[in-house]
Amino acid sequence: MQDLGIRVLFLGNNFARLLQGLWITIRISLIAVALSIVFGVLLGILMTVKNPVIKAMTKIYLEFIRIMPQLVLLFLVFFGLTKSYGINLSGETSAIIVFTLWGTAEMGDLVRGALISIPKHQYESGAAIGLTKWQVYRYVIIPQILTRLVPLAINLTTRMIKTTSLVALIGVVEVLKVAQQIIEANRYTVPDSALWIYGTIFFLYFFACWPISLVAKRLEKKWKTT
Amino acid sequence: MDIGFIVEYIPLYVEAAKLTLGIGLIGIALSLIVGLLIAFIQYFKIPILRQMATGYIELSRNTPLLVQLFFLYFGLPKVGIRISSEGCAIIGLCFLGGSYMAEAFRSGMESVEKGQEESAFALGFRKSQVVRYVILPQALSVSIPALCANMIFLIKETSVFSVVALADLMYVAKDLIGLYYKTDEALLMLVIAYLIILLPISIVAAILERRIRYAGFGN
């Protein structure tokens, strides 16, 4: 039993290094989510504007971002920008740009959906009982939008964390790269470490995303009736 | 922009696109089957299998395909399980897609009112007949938008297959960038290739979504 590959996890500070690697992807996704919530709300409001030009532009942006695999977008920013415009971005910066662009598109669509799902009579009844325009938004519209939006935004976070695993492919040293380093370093002493290390990463991702999606599910259920 | 270069290397992209599509379609077909099976397991509340299905769904929905592929392709050979690149890609896609499809089917089946099930029982239908003649026809029409969205999602996910040494579109693009430093041309062709694959699917999905009205009773 002494030659079990799992011991590679506890050699030196390997496990801590893996966690640090995971933190890098999580940090990228948290920054991207924060930015995309801000821009997404703006985009969502912009999309409800009845100007045909704005409508067409937002539509094209949305469709293009959503139809392209995120990895293609990463390649476009990471390799494309450098070659065409001489802009040298680090892997992490280009990842944040790409995931913000993507998150903004997703979030914008969610905000738009929440906005148009509020029936017109809500505004009118609010006005009819003498609320000012600000009060209508403050007490009637925004609470309803938030209960619809918050679970979806939390869900977006888990999707973001999962998708940021792609940054390994543009050379960011995150959890998968750290894993490769550990596996290579122990190739002779622990030949079957790959199984254990990749298995660990699998569960690390699971335990990073699972609680978040549980919270989202619970909130969604709780606020369904409102 | 070097047009000659683009024309010269179009065949490479066509081959890669065929591979992506082929594996994508097999993976999607398998994940539809897995999804339907799991939806049935949850609907019929089959004891142990049901808990396993829940565990599987949570596990597959909360981990990225990239990590699943790394485990399959680099991890499993260490215990003697060697799977070819194509095998890994298909298994990975099916593992990921199965849970998404299951959720789509389940939400469709849940949208059918309880009263219909009860009326069917009152008419003397067996449970399997209820599913076959009452639930499924209505559930499918509700599920179709979600199923289409999942298909697009899964085809997009195929872009990570290059890590298991499959010569897919990303692999070809990266190769051309590395070999000839024709970044613009390679990336342009990459974008166009994905547009050609995904745009028609997404347009068909949008049309389907508009055409399929809720086929349920009432409404």
What does this structure look like?
The complex is a heterodimer of chains A (226) and B (219). Chain A is an all-alpha fold. Chain A is built from 8 helices and no strands. Chain A has helices at 14-47, 52-67, 70-85, 91-117, 120-128, 133-163, 175-185, 193-222. In chain A, α3 (70-85) crosses α4 (91-117) and α5 (120-128) runs antiparallel to α6 (133-163). The N and C termini of chain A lie far apart (57 Å). The mean pLDDT of chain A is 86. The mean pLDDT of chain B is 87. Chain B starts with a helix and ends in an 8-residue tail after the last helix. Chain B is flat, with a radius of gyration of 21 Å. Helices cover 80% and strands 0% of the residues of chain B. Chain B contains 8 helices and no strands. Classes of the chains: A mainly alpha (226), B mainly alpha (219). At the A-B interface, α3, α6, α7 and α8 of A face α2, α3, α6, α7 and α8 of B.
Order of helices and strands of chain B: HHHHHHHH
Provide the β-strand percentage band of chain B. Answer: under 5%
Domain module count of chain A: 1
- Number of discrete helical segments of chain B: 8
Largest sheet of chain A: none
**Number of contiguous helices of chain A:** 8
Any idea what the CATH superfamily of chain A is called?
MetI-like
**How many E strands of chain B?**
0
Secondary structure: elements and pairs:
The complex is a heterodimer of chains A (226) and B (219).
Chain A: H1 14-47, H2 52-67, H3 70-85, H4 91-117, H5 120-128, H6 133-163, H7 175-185, H8 193-222
Helix pairs in contact in A: 1-4, 1-6, 1-7, 2-4, 3-4, 4-6, 5-6, 6-8, 7-8
Chain B: H1 3-44, H2 47-61, H3 65-75, H4 85-110, H5 114-122, H6 127-157, H7 169-180, H8 183-211
Helix pairs in contact in B: 1-4, 1-6, 1-7, 1-8, 2-4, 3-4, 4-6, 5-6, 6-8, 7-8
Keywords for this structure?
heterodimer, A: about 230 residues, mainly alpha, MetI-like fold, 8 helices, B: about 220 residues, flat
